[in-house]
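Teaching assistant here, posting this on the class forum so everyone can see the example we discussed in section. The complex has four components, and the goal was to see what a joint structure prediction looks like when all of them are supplied at once.
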Amino acid sequence: MVSIKDVADQAQVAVGTVSNVLNNPDRVAEKTRERVLSVISELGFVRNDAARQLRAGMSRTIGLIVLDVSNPFFSSLARAAEDRAAESDSTVLLGDSGHDGERESRYLDVFEQQRVKGVLISPVGNVDERLKQLRAHGVPVVLVDRVDPQRRVSSVSVDDVAGGYMAVKHMLTRGRRRIAFVGASTDIQQVADRLAGAQQAVAEYPDAELEVVEAAAMTVLAGRAAGELLAERGLEALPDGIFCANDLVAIGVMQAVLLIRGLRIPEDLALIGYDDIDFAQSAVVPLSTVRRPTELMGRTAIELLLEAIDRPTSESRQVIFQPELVSRGSTL
Amino acid sequence: MVSIKDVADQAQVAVGTVSNVLNNPDRVAEKTRERVLSVISELGFVRNDAARQLRAGMSRTIGLIVLDVSNPFFSSLARAAEDRAAESDSTVLLGDSGHDGERESRYLDVFEQQRVKGVLISPVGNVDERLKQLRAHGVPVVLVDRVDPQRRVSSVSVDDVAGGYMAVKHMLTRGRRRIAFVGASTDIQQVADRLAGAQQAVAEYPDAELEVVEAAAMTVLAGRAAGELLAERGLEALPDGIFCANDLVAIGVMQAVLLIRGLRIPEDLALIGYDDIDFAQSAVVPLSTVRRPTELMGRTAIELLLEAIDRPTSESRQVIFQPELVSRGSTL
DNA sequence: TCGTGCCAATGAATCGATTCAAATTCGATT
DNA sequence: AATCGAATTTGAATCGATTCATTGGCACGA
């Protein structure tokens, strides 16, 4: 394996000069620099990152742990984070915990051993313990899609209450008054927030009413089951606008309503989801939905982390983004 | 930051002993080992991976570059690869090229600098050049979902011809005889292979015929457009079995056939897709499909790589997996 | 000619874990 | 008590890039 010493010998300069060519090119005379560079490509020299970071005491990598890479929200966020990190000459190590605390823990161990500059994490469960350990070891952390109740670390998240509000308000302004909310248990913070926003919007219209339908899970199948229950009612007992806690549930409801009861969307029933997954726009009736600014969240998370790295004493910041309404055929 | 030296001082032993506690515990007397371990946890010592790998000359990490992490095929494969690697005390660095050659290249650079043990890659385009460079630097490579025509490196892939064959054979054994294949351009190797398999199956039945319908892309919308074209025909001109080159296209066709023409699946028309994405089983009519053994592929890729690392002179191996038919409601 | 600055280049010291030959301790045996 | 062999422990050398105090060379002005 070619080392900086081999390059130095071959180019007849000292190792310090080669290092300067790589890190402080303007301190080296042009002729020397060119000679060194040509030797580097001739020998196919590649910097040894381990040696570099051993000396530097810190790596140029940032750890990112997401709950599920196959979820477009996270993969898009991760991609944006990587791009932003690359601009600051850092690399993102992507870890997928798959909602599994053990895998999460394994990644945190690896990240610590690699002496990452900092960690972005969308934590599985209760992370107080791990956060404490990371902080004790001086590893800056930024939470993603979750806030730290104690405000010890910075975070980026989305205002789901506002998201729920804008979804339902959207239907209300289109004249719908009998609104239903379909979602899983409100034990899940995100579901509870979206419902709270829906309630806020309905409260602004004295003649509007909100009905809550609980689905077994946040899946297409659970949504379809909930949709079938609704569709069994007579037309007069049916809501005229349904807000689902995510797009999967909404697609399930759509299947039930369209096919089993033969109702029309949006004529008989308006429908809106949450997340803007790929399928939303290619559903039978293109699905209106609420989109979270994933790219912006990814970039911002990196920026908060870089800030925490550069100024470890600075106060933590909780950045909360506003979601965006995407209006499609299902709520025309 | 706590180093092995601090631990040694505090535990009143030499640094070599601490190292042995970590790497060769049975060479250390029990009493000493316990004392050292308690100091380690007391001081919160964490191994510095950079120093370790500098000395070792090689890291314990494996680089994995996929075309798109949000594609369940790749995320599932990546997860399996990570688990298999963990069993061999290695860590996977996951990179998402997003079909972008530049990002791919950036990851390969980082991986080289980090002196990864090896690289698994599902390459974007022509990788001959990069493969050559990696091989020149002695970095073992295994291709994923792609074979090297020159058989220089090992690979794991799927027999798409067999997949196409079993999909169409499945419909033929259920009495369907007028088969249609819907897919994008056969410039894409996978599409061409699946079609070839379909033709093989049809050739076995003298009274069966195969029609090829080209879709604009491998998406739901393109599938729907193709489905609408088919559905416009009279019932007697319609195929009675459709094989789509992937599930997205199949779902598009299903939407067109069910809703626009009001046909019944599978009574009027059997339908089968490819990939077994999550949506396949929660489609309106659960979609039959062909599944690739992603977990097995991920594990095997790591094993091939470990083999190439351990025995650099060993011959390359092209492992081709057989896909599996998943029969659901759409082909009953 | 000598001194003063400045620009380039030098190379030893350093980071932290691992390795291994050498030293030390321990126990059993004579 | 002396000896031998095995079990432990020691600590200097090593990996490769970076840093920085120091040296070398050169030009210009006095």
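For the discussion questions: The longest strand of chain A covers residues 61-66. Chain A has three domains: 4-47, 60-158+295-321, 160-292. Think about how each of these relates to the inputs above.
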